[in-house]
Amino acid sequence: MAGNFSFDQLKQAVSNGEIDTVLACIVDMQGRLAGKRFLAQYFVDSAHGETHGCNYLLAADIDMEPVPGYKAASWSKGYGDFVMKPDLSTLRRIPWLEKTALVICDVLDHHDHEDLAHSPRAILKKQIQRLKERGYIGYFASELEFYLFSETYDSARRKHWQGLDTASPYIGDYQIGITTKEEGVMRRLRNEMEAAGIPIENSKGEWGPGQEEINVRYAEALEMADRHVILKNGAKEIAHSEGKAISFMAKYNYGLAGNSSHIHNSLWSADGKTPLFFDKNAEWTLSTLGQQWAAGQLKYAKEFTWFLAPYINSYKRFQAGTFAPTKIMWSEDNRTAGFRLCGEGTKGIRMECRIGGADLNPYLAFAALIAAGLAGIDEKLELQKPFVGDAYQASQLPEIPKTLRDATETLANSAMLEQAFGEDVVEHYVHTARWEQFEYDRRITDWELHRGFERY
């Protein structure tokens, strides 16, 4: 199940004095946990039914500034409440915080108590329902990469995020010796996430100094998205308690590898027992259903790229020769590809989307991949032949949008996403993307000052 702690167990733990705080959290548009810390006894007595929050939380930018122009929430509408409805199946102990439990809440309309359509969790739940209606379960796994620094967030801020000391001084990709030096944080992260009901398969060094990758056991799409956001939040909290800092920026340093969030995805039967992508007699052992799913993701990749790369910085990661993709194509086990077929010849066969950065919101990313995959099935698309070779050098291949501005406009014109998500939902996130671009366009960067203060 999603959590590791039943409501009855919570009541007993509160009675025994083992739990005194419950975090009731929604997921905001940026994929962050936002909510309230409840006195545990009050949560057990009353707030487990519902609580409330200001609806600007899903109409604000990453700086928590209310953004003008949203239909769903605005100053003219008074920024009223929405309902935060705890999903008690997500209840879990949080070992890295003293006497604390956490629950993820759905966001409901204050008047009719229906899912708020533009909330990230509701968007994913709608796509999961579309799968369920066809007899499918979508299994997902997102790999998360991040940089670990021998700095606190305060010391990094004082240095203006320049010249930071990484946990290791050189690249230690897969190297056990160098990653042993990082075990103070990484061992806690693996073990305490496991204790919180988030099964960790492994961690490893990545292709940057102090860069890490942590891999969570695959799960049904909603549960995996819940795991993803709790892991990101918990990783920062654990690092902070160890006097360290973690960054999930897609590209924190021009000269170093970016942070990705590769997303593995496949369909299984409704009972979760039969893999629907595996066909030992099919080409690449990928069933017709799997081929159509993959073809849909390829066809609509430009239209949903924003859901995988939502910030200006996200597009700095797409650089040739860095293990980040630049082209929209698929290959068999080829890390230059935007999409890679994994597990060929086994029941674990799946598509890996390599476009997303660690800054994505998993609910939005998973929902977009499901919508595109279902479009491929509905349209009975034929999967093109796999690309062979170095995709970075293949000029004939379609490119991933190079900028936030490009990705925003393809999103704005996507009939497929409008049909899958609803017109108002797409408009909400197009507005989000355009605000991010507007904020960047009017700011003065360190690069501009360095280049032009004297020389212009």
Briefly say what this structure is.
Its EC number is 6.3.1.2. It comes from Mesorhizobium shonense. This protein is of the alpha+beta class.
Chart the SSEs and their pairings:
Layout: H1 7-15, E1 21-27, E2 33-39, H2 40-47, E3 51-54, E4 81-86, E5 92-93, E6 100-108, H3 120-133, E7 136-149, H4 153-158, H5 176-180, H6 183-195, E8 200-205, E9 211-216, E10 219-220, H7 221-241, E11 245-247, E12 263-269, H8 288-299, H9 301-304, E13 330-332, E14 339-342, E15 350-353, H10 362-378, H11 404-412, H12 415-421, H13 423-441, H14 446-452
Parallel strand pairs: 1-6, 13-14
Antiparallel strand pairs: 1-2, 3-4, 4-6, 5-6, 7-9, 7-10, 7-11, 7-12, 8-9, 12-15, 14-15
Helix pairs in contact: 3-10, 6-7, 8-10, 10-12, 11-13, 12-13
InterPro entries: Gln_synt_N (IPR008147), Gln_synt_N_sf (IPR036651), Gln_synth/guanido_kin_cat_dom (IPR014746), Gln_synth_cat_dom (IPR008146)
Function: Catalyzes the ATP-dependent biosynthesis of glutamine from glutamate and ammonia.
Family: Belongs to the glutamine synthetase family.
Q: How many strand units? A: 15
Helix/strand class: alpha+beta
Number of helices in the DSSP assignment: 14
Share of residues in strands: 15-25%
Mean pLDDT: 95
Largest sheet: 9 strands, mixed
What value does the Rg take, in angstroms? 22 Å
| Overall geometry | globular
Give the CA-CA distance, first to last residue: 60 Å
Binned, the helix content reads 25-40%
Order of helices and strands: HEEHEEEEHEHHHEEEHEEHHEEEHHHHH
**Poorly predicted residue ranges:** none
